[in-house]
Structures are given as C-alpha cells and as structure tokens.
C-alpha cells in the first residue's frame, strides 16, 4: 500500500513537471502556443507581464467557472432526484468544490514550474529545424503529462478540469467539448491580438498541430502504459 501511494504521488508530480515542460517547449518553438494557454500568452505578451503569473490568473478563472458549473449541475440533478438521494448529492457537491479549490495551489506550483522552464530553455528562433523539434517535443510531453495527471485521478489541472466540468454540465463527450473549448480559446486569443496589437499573437501552425496531435499522444500513451501505471499506483477504474 505504501509503495502504491508513493508511486501514485511520484507519477502525479512527474506529470506536472512533464506537462509544464511540454507547454514551455511548445511556447518556445515560436510556431504558436497550445490553445489552452493561448489567451494567457497573448495577454502576457501584449501587457509585457509574466506568462506564468497570467496563466495562474487564467486558471483561477477556470476554477471559479468549474465551481459555478458544478453547482448548476448539482441543482439540476437535485430537482430530478428523489429525496433519499438528495442529501448524498449535496455531500458530493461539497467534495467536488473542495477538489475544485485544490486546483488553485496546484496551479500556483504548476505555473512556477512554467517560469522555471521558461528561464532554463533556450530560444530556437531563427533555426526552423530546431523550432519544429521543440514543437514536436512539446506536443509529446504535453500529451504524456496530461495523460499521467488524469490517470492518477488526484487533482486535475484546471485546463482539464474546466473541460470536464463543461462536458458534465452540457452532457457532451469530453473529446468534443475539448475541441470546442480549444476553438473558443483560439478565437478569443485571435481577437485579443487583433484588437490590442493589430496582429495575431501566439497563434500559428504550432497551435493547429497541437490541437490535432496532443489528443492522439494521450490516446497512444494510455494504450501502452495506462493499465500498467494505474495498477502499480493502485488506481482503480
């Protein structure tokens, strides 16, 4: 049991490091940032503020939105459920909100990792081969980090948590919700750039490739490693 608990914590912490590294490699490529953090990136570039700090603020907005969506879903469920199960649903809501709030300290730690990797990673601008190498590595690591984080079922990254909350509230598949959410982020980022900088900021071929490829990396990683990893960590599905 202790070994499983240790492995679960190890895999989870490793997932945060891998995910932060992947996001920063994608960003450093200069070919376009991933859709989920494109809004924060465009705001940080235009306002000349720290990318990690703006990302933390964006994640805080996601957490607030998650709480609101979970309350709406719970009230909708309570109106249709019978009296016997309503108290249990109420207790479940409290637990869900606590898990939502735990995403805030997670986000603070995660964005500090982002700042660290931003400072350590070189800038490959001007070397097209290096830029695409950074992009490919970023996409692979982002997919692996996201898969590991979700597989450990502890506290989700707010970027994943908000998608799950929207999917639960509207009753649509997570994959479709993720695609729609990414598209909304790209449109918002494009609008911010065109309005305040009169150009696209953070949107490029790398953004499109990331939208299409990260999900495939998650699927491939889970196909080969999810069962073994979750068994070793004692995670039940």
Automatic annotation (TrEMBL):
Domain of life: Bacteria
TM spans (from-to): 6-25, 53-72, 93-114, 126-148, 200-221
Keywords (A to Z) from UniProt: Membrane, Transmembrane, Transmembrane helix
Signal peptide: none
InterPro entries reported in the protein's UniProt record: YczE/YyaS-like (IPR038750)
The protein's name: YitT family protein
Organism per entry: Blautia aquisgranensis
């Amino acid at each position: 049991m202790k070994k499983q608990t240790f492995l679960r914590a190890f895999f989870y912490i490793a997932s945060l490091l891998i995910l932060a590294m992947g996001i920063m490699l994608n960003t450093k490529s200069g070919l376009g940032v991933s859709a989920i953090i494109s809004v924060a990136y465009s705001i940080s570039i235009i306002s000349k503020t720290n990318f990690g700090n703006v990302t933390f603020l964006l994640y805080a907005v996601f957490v607030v939105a998650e709480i609101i969506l979970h309350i709406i879903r719970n009230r909708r469920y309570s109106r249709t459920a019978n009296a016997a199960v309503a108290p249990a649903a109420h207790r479940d809501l409290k637990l869900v909100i606590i898990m939502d709030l735990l995403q805030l300290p997670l986000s603070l730690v995660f964005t500090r990792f982002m700042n660290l990797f931003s400072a350590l990673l070189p800038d490959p601008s001007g070397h097209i081969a290096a830029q695409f190498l950074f992009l490919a590595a970023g996409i692979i690591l982002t997919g692996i980090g996201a898969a590991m984080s979700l597989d450990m079922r502890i506290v989700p990254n707010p970027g994943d948590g908000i998608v799950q909350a929207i999917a639960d509230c509207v009753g649509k598949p997570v994959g479709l919700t993720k695609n729609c959410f990414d598209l909304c982020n790209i449109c918002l980022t494009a609008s911010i750039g065109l309005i305040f900088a009169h150009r696209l900021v953070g949107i490029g071929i790398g953004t499109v490739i990331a939208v299409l490829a990260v999900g495939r990396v998650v699927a491939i990683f889970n196909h080969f490693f999810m069962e073994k990893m979750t068994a070793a960590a004692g995670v039940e599905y």
